[in-house]
Design brief:
heterodimer, A: mainly beta, Immunoglobulin-like, B: 5-stranded antiparallel β-sheet, 4-stranded antiparallel β-sheet, elongated, cytoplasm (chain A), cytoskeleton (chain A), cilium biogenesis/degradation (chain A), B9 domain-containing protein 2 (chain A)
């Protein structure tokens, strides 16, 4: 659809306008809030941290600094929502669709002695179609590593390995789990790389053992610009 | 021969009384006596004009809600939006229409079995903008009487205005800030100084500086929105 004329001040003056290349670039807005957490089964306070992971073709125009989000600490009765209610407004300029933005979530626990510790992790993908979406992200807590998988040769299949000693799963050892329980420090991830999909360390995710934890609920409105014009789906 | 000058043809039509010989420089201008030319009509057709801003008009109702065991509550709302690109279009010149906000009546639940409190509080706001960043949010504050009858804050919450046109229902989750310690909380309960947020609309809508606050969920509020968007397709959205 061409817009040949622009009204310039005076009602009867029209002039031809030229569109620049930037007017035809695809842009996406993610507007919403991290509503809260559900089913975490703890009496401590919980807060959530969100980091945005996107590809190289995605440029975060607004807000200027991408330092991530940290919500307030919320307490809840059993069965109640831990309400964080943290709004966010992200404006991306898209030159390459590869690397659609993901939210890397980390839920922290604040216990009664004012000490914080990692509670669980999760990855949520921002919706790919315009409109209102409710995104629910189930989170998991790592319980240990199965380092025997490292020793195995890269091409060797799990089923073909018949060595009984290498099947021993070190992390399900009762000593390790008892120590984590009484010291109240479950294992933590050293990097968020296992949560993303395309950085190099994601392949190491297979050595993790984890236990399920609660879910994080986000509401997102997606507004897209020029997607239809560039024949991208979703708008 | 019939190879007459085209201009001459036009000037030949000037024999109609009162009409001057105007040459628009285009071939075949259809000039009517008291009308506009096709080119002028094309230039004034709104489908051919690029507007210079988009408009967001929404109205809605803060319908009802619940908050822990409260019986009587009042709801206050403020609409927060990104400062620079967005302009709030006032509908009147009153002093209280400078920023979109409002305070409702104090309403009570119907009986002991239900904690549902109905306000049915309508609002309408109109914005002019050039950018989607800073999309408006509705920030609410619930307040009501404490055991001595003083008005204290009972909870806060926020929700973004829907970005798609039409009718939408949303649920705002309400939370209440916790006091620093048990003693502060007890003293606050007696004196009516419970933990509250100063400038609640700025704190809740931006999310900055909330890392060290502690809150507890206390309830919800149901909102209904009706949204109309103007010029969004001309800017490439929608």
């Amino acid at each position: 659809m061409s817009m040949p004329y622009q009204q310039t001040g005076n009602q009867i003056d029209y002039q031809e306008i030229k569109q620049t290349k930037a007017d035809l670039k695809a842009e996406v807005h993610f507007i919403g809030q991290i509503v809260g957490g559900l089913d975490f089964q703890t009496d401590d306070g919980l807060f959530c941290e969100l980091a945005i992971d996107c590809g190289d073709g995605w440029d975060l125009l607004q807000p200027g600094n991408n330092k991530g989000i940290q919500t307030q600490t919320s307490y809840a009765n059993p069965g109640q929502l831990f309400s964080w209610g943290h709004p966010f407004d992200l404006h991306f300029s898209v030159s390459n669709l590869i690397g659609w933005p993901k939210a890397l979530l980390k839920v922290w626990r604040l216990d009664s002695s004012n000490k914080i510790d990692a509670c669980s992790y999760g990855t949520a993908i921002f919706p790919r179609s315009a409109g209102y979406h409710q995104v629910t992200c189930e989170t998991w807590t790592p319980t240990g590593e199965n380092l025997d998988l490292e020793i195995r040769k890269p091409n060797e299949d799990l089923a073909t390995n018949t060595d009984s000693l290498s099947k021993f799963d070190r992390t399900l050892d009762w000593r390790f789990q008892a120590l984590s329980f009484y010291m109240e420090n479950p294992p933590r991830l050293t990097t968020l790389a296992p949560l993303t999909t395309d950085k190099g360390d994601f392949a190491r995710r297979k050595i993790l053992n984890s236990i399920s934890n609660g879910k994080v609920i986000m509401e997102v409105e997606v507004v897209m610009k020029n997607f239809k014009r560039l024949s991208f789906s979703g708008q | 021969m019939n190879t007459r000058n085209y201009k001459k043809d036009v000037s030949d039509q000037g024999s109609i009384k009162g009409q001057t010989n105007q040459n628009f420089g285009y071939s075949q201008p259809q000039q009517f006596q008291d009308g506009i030319s096709r080119i002028q009509e094309e230039m004034m057709d709104p489908r051919n004009i690029q507007p210079d801003s988009m408009f967001v008009n929404f109205s809605g109702v803060l319908e009802c809600g619940e908050c822990e065991d409260e019986e009587s509550l009042r709801i206050e709302y403020a609409v927060k939006y990104g400062g620079d690109d967005w302009t709030y279009l006032k509908t009147s010149n009153n002093a209280d229409d400078a920023e979109p906000s409002g305070i409702s009546q104090l309403s009570t639940s119907r009986n002991l079995h239900s904690r549902n409190i109905v306000w049915n509080f309508p609002f309408e706001c109109n914005f002019q903008t050039k950018n989607i960043f800073g999309w408006p949010q509705v920030v609410v504050r619930l307040s009501g009487p404490d055991f001595m009858g003083r008005s204290v804050a009972k909870g806060y919450g926020s929700v973004h205005v829907p970005t798609q046109p039409g009718y939408h229902e949303r649920v705002i989750r309400i939370f209440k800030p916790l006091p620093i310690s048990g003693f502060t909380g007890f003293l606050g309960y007696l004196l009516g100084n419970t933990a509250e947020l100063k400038n609640f609309d700025k704190v809740i809508s931006s999310g900055e500086g909330r890392e060290v606050t502690r809150v507890k969920s206390v309830g919800y509020v149901k909102v209904k929105f009706h949204v109309t968007l103007v010029n969004f397709d001309k800017f490439g959205y929608l």
